[in-house]
Write a structure and sequence with these properties.
Elements lengths: L4 E6 L3 H16 L3 E2 L7 E6 L4 H19 L5 E6 H10 L8 E2 L20 E5 L1 E2 L10 H5 L3 E2 L2 H13 L4 E5 L16 H11 L5 E4 L9 H9 L6 E3 L7 H6 L6 H14 L4 E8 L6 H14 L3 E6 L17 H24 L5 E11 L2 E5 L11 E4 L10 E9 L4 E5 L1
Parallel strand pairs: 1-2, 1-3, 3-4, 4-5, 6-9, 9-10, 11-12, 12-13, 16-18
Antiparallel strand pairs: 7-8, 14-15, 14-17, 15-16, 17-18
Helix pairs in contact: 5-6, 6-7, 10-11
The protein binds iron/sulfur cluster.
The site of iron/sulfur cluster has 9 residues, from helix 4.
Length: 418
């Protein structure tokens, strides 16, 4: 019997990508053939609705599929992910051409049977789903529910499978992985989990942690990151803001003093660490003075990597109802100021690599004699890249090579393979 050909468009963050992989894995095990969206009979969009831009991108992707269906090139359309979960009632009447809507995926051991969408040599492994926090700007807890950790055994099983497949890198993800284990083991278990994963691997060289909440970083976790050779010395710590009033309005917990202490502890306990953070500008009521405080803090803290977001007013969140929502123009100006300051910091940080010999993971071929790769302090898709020149040598994605850095830019580096 001819199997149905299904194509998928995955939008949003790496966590959504993992969900997409799991959907594909399940479909494949049910006999569907996975193809490029342009050769598909059934088109599936895994949507994101975390912020306004993501919603727009999701709606555009659905409309593109509807066009394909109208032209007779697709038979069916399925829309999955948080957009239908959040807005099903509102969007359903307007998207009559969509054949099925799927909401949140449950986190089960079955998810381990994935069909990977990320580059073959790099994998995302979801260790938990949901979040116990109630940040006032964030809709995730309402969409994904409270923290649900996977068991250590199930995670190790999946890590071993990825290792046996020959992966070079595993990125551990979840909404807040520093909370890992609290629900099922009644204590913070990330440090212990990392040691267990690390000792179960033979091939994977880089194990990366994505999204650690600043208030659950234990001494044990820092020791695990510092001492386990496979764990990238890369700490992704979304701070969102540093002004105490704004932090309180964001319901982030903690305060500026604690943040400063934490950053100094992370730098002291993990030599050579690169800290990534994300910041929100233009939160309701953020005054010019509060923004300036954030900006000068950022300049002093000299984060190696920063992601900046303009506050997005999301229905269903507490901050949606806050007074003093700021005009887009102010958000844009603050975004530009902070990005400009960070570009300078990043340029200076990168210039320190000039002439150094560094290990690079090759991701893909760029053109003849040039490849794109990353340092261990660069997460896939979000951080900088290394343009690797290798005239006389053929390199393969997933390969680790020694590279001498010969030029540096704001976000990227150029090197020659040694
Ligand atoms: S910790 Fe992260 S996922 Fe959880 S509510 Fe806050 S911003 Fe959202």
């Amino acid at each position: 019997m001819k199997s149905t050909k299904i194509g998928i468009i995955s939008l949003g963050c790496p966590r959504n990508l993992v969900d997409s992989q799991n959907i594909l894995g399940n479909l494949q095990s049910k006999g569907y053939t996975i193809v490029d969206i342009h050769n598909a009979e059934v088109g599936l969009v895994n949507t994101c609705s975390f912020i306004e831009d993501a919603k727009k991108e999701s709606i555009d992707a659905i409309l593109d599929l509807i066009e394909l269906k109208k032209k007779g090139r697709l038979k069916k359309i399925i829309v999955a992910g948080c957009l239908p979960q959040r807005y099903k009632e509102a969007i359903l009447p307007h998207l009559k051409e969509v054949d099925a809507f799927m909401g949140r995926l449950s986190l089960s051991d079955d998810n381990a049977k994935s069909y990977t969408l990320s580059p073959k040599h790099s994998a995302y492994l979801k260790i938990s789903e949901g979040c116990n926090h109630h940040c006032s700007f964030c809709i995730i807890p309402k969409i994904k529910g409270r923290l649900q950790s996977r068991t250590v055994n199930s995670i190790i099983k999946e890590a071993k499978r990825l290792d046996a497949e020959g992966k070079s890198e595993i990125n551990l993800i979840g909404q807040d992985i520093s909370h890992y284990g609290l629900d099922i083991y009644k204590r913070l278990q990330l440090g212990a989990l990392l040691r267990a994963i690390s000792s179960s691997l033979t091939h994977v060289k880089w194990l990366r942690l994505l999204y650690l909440h600043p208030h659950h970083i234990t001494g044990d976790l820092l020791r695990a990151i510092a001492n386990e050779k496979r764990i990238c010395k890369y700490v992704d710590l979304p701070l969102q803001h540093v002004n105490n009033r704004v932090l309180k309005a964001m319901k982030r917990g903690g305060n500026k003093k604690k943040i400063i202490q934490l950053l100094s502890e992370v730098r002291k306990k993990i030599p050579g660490v690169a800290i990534r953070t994300s910041l929100i500008v233009g939160f309701p009521g953020e005054t010019e003075k509060e923004f300036e405080e954030l900006l000068s803090f950022m300049k002093e803290a000299r984060f190696e990597r920063v992601g900046v977001f303009r506050y997005s007013r999301e229905e269903g969140t507490d901050a949606y109802h806050y007074p003093s929502q700021l005009p887009e123009k102010i958000k844009e100006d603050r975004f530009n100021s902070i990005m400009q300051a960070q570009a300078e910091i990043s340029r200076e940080f990168n210039s320190g690599f000039l002439g150094r010999e560094l290990e690079v993971l090759i991701d893909e071929k760029e053109s003849d004699g040039t490849y794109l790769g990353r340092l261990s302090i660069d997460a896939p898709e979000v951080d900088g890249q290394v343009y690797v020149k290798a005239q006389a040598q053929r390199l393969n994605p997933g390969e680790f090579v020694k590279v001498k850095i010969i030029d540096t830019y704001e976000y990227d580096l150029v090197g020659e393979v040694l």
